[in-house]
Structures are given as structure tokens and as C-alpha cells.
Amino acid sequence: MTLRPITRDDQDEFIGLVRASVDLHHPWMSLPATPQEFQTYVGRFDDPLSAEGLLVCVRETGAIAGNINIQSIIRGRFQCGSLGYAAFAPTAGQGYMSEGIGLVLRHAFEQLRLHRLEANIQPENEASLRLARRHGFRKEGYSPGLLFIDGAWRDHERWAITSTMAGEISVPPHPTLPRH
Ligand SMILES: CC(C)(COP(=O)(O)OP(=O)(O)OC[C@H]1O[C@@H](n2cnc3c(N)ncnc32)[C@H](O)[C@@H]1OP(=O)(O)O)[C@@H](O)C(=O)NCCC(=O)NCCS
Predict the structure, then answer these.
(1) Residues 73 and 54: beta-carbon distance below 8 Å
(2) Which residue in 2, 74, 139, 168 has the most C-beta neighbors within 10 A?
(3) d(CA 124, CA 30)
(4) What is the pTM of this model?
């Protein structure tokens, strides 16, 4: 698998995959399904300092297999980002997202030099919980009514992984990290 930033040119393939993945995504994830929604969505990633929209692609064909966003990036003493992710139905369940998450962890901790990534997951979302566990995320807590998903404020488990937990110890600190 390879990882690359989403662009406005991905519109048609992305929308087609979202439409084919309604059953897989419901009720956990809502992604843009019209050109207008897609262009607004991609605009979220215009400032890579605060959010990165990434696509997990099949290396041989370039086909999009999933998306993983690093959102709500906060620097300073936090150095943290929040993950959002979804597979697409035609290629789901083959380990592609697992490999993609592995690539994103390396990118976030080595290139972006973040200290921490969070994943907020609804307690009933078994597939997502398995993915987080498999990559060494630790359950830190539980927040009632944390996110507005599928028409209501949903409770979420709070999962996170730090660069230390992921074994990334040789990267110099990000310049925005205070010395003391
Ligand atoms: C959560 C989600 C992204 C997982 O995607 P996925 O395509 O099933 O992920 P993967 O294929 O990498 O892993 C799933 C299974 O493939 C299996 N698999 C098959 N071949 C594999 C391989 N070569 N390597 C690793 N795993 C492999 C894994 O064992 C895994 O099984 P398990 O989950 O029963 O342990 C997907 O279910 C999804 O999009 N859900 C809806 C959106 C969502 O919930 N997003 C998260 C909100 S918090």
C-alpha cells in the first residue's frame, strides 16, 4: 500500500467508492457523496498544519482503498492529532487499512513529529476497535456524547498511541515543542 494526500482531482473515484460503501460506513462514518460535498471536504485539508487528508492506495494500481485523516493537529506542549478513517467496500477486509494505519503512524511520528495520535471510537464499532488494538493504541477513557454522528451525540471510547509506545524514539522534537 502507499499513502498520498487527497486532492480535488480524486473527486469522481472517491465519490464512487463512498456510494459503494454506504452499508460498510453506516452508522459509523459519513463521507462526501456529491461533488459539492467533496470539494468542501477537501478544503478542510488546505492548511496541512491543522489537518492532513490521506488516501491509502494499492501500490500496483493506484486504486484508492481507504482514507485516513489526521485532524485537529495541535502543536506546542500537546503535539497531538486525531485520526479518522474508513475502508472502501471493494477492498475492505483484506488488511489494507491495517497496513495504511501502520504507514500513517510512521508518517505522523517521523515526518510530522507528533507525539500522540488519538482515535475516538464508538463502543459498538468492533472493526474499528480491533484495528486500533492491533496497532497498539491504548484505551484511555470514555466520553459520553463526544461526537455528533448519524444524527445524535454519541458516546466514544478514547484510544491513543504515543510515539514512544510506537517505538519512535530517534526523531528530534518538533521545533514548536517548548524546551522546558
Ligand atoms: C474499521 C475499518 C476501517 C476496518 O477496515 P478493514 O478494511 O476491515 O481493515 P483491514 O482489512 O485492515 O482489517 C480487517 C480484517 O482483515 C483481516 N486481514 C485479512 N488479510 C489481512 C492481512 N494481510 N493483513 C492484516 N489483516 C488482514 C484482518 O485479520 C482483520 O480482521 P479482524 O478485524 O477480524 O481482526 C472498516 O470496517 C470501516 O471502514 N468501517 C466503517 C468506518 C469506521 O468505522 N471508521 C472508524 C470510525 S472510529
Answers:
(1) no
(2) 168
(3) 17
(4) 0.95
Q: How far is the CA of 94 from the centre of ligand 1 (A)?
A: 7
Q: How many domains does the chain have?
A: 1
Which structural domain, as residue segments, surrounds residue 34?
A: 2-162
Closest atom of ligand 1 to CA, residue 100:
12
Q: Please provide the size of the chain in residues.
A: 180
Q: What is the CATH number of the domain that holds 29?
A: 3.40.630.30
23 assigned to some structural domain: yes
pLDDT per residue as tens digits for the range 101-153: 999 999 999 999 999 999 999 999 999 999 999 999 999 999 999 999 999 99
Task: Provide residues with CB under 6 Å of ligand 1.
Answer: 24-25, 28-29, 85-87, 92-98, 121, 125, 127-128, 130-131
Residue 144 resides in a domain: yes
Q: Which of 98, 126, 135 to mutate to test the pocket of ligand 1 (most atoms within 8 A of CB)?
A: 98
Asked if residue 112 belongs to a domain, the reply is yes
For 72, the enclosing helix (H) or strand (E) is strand 64-74
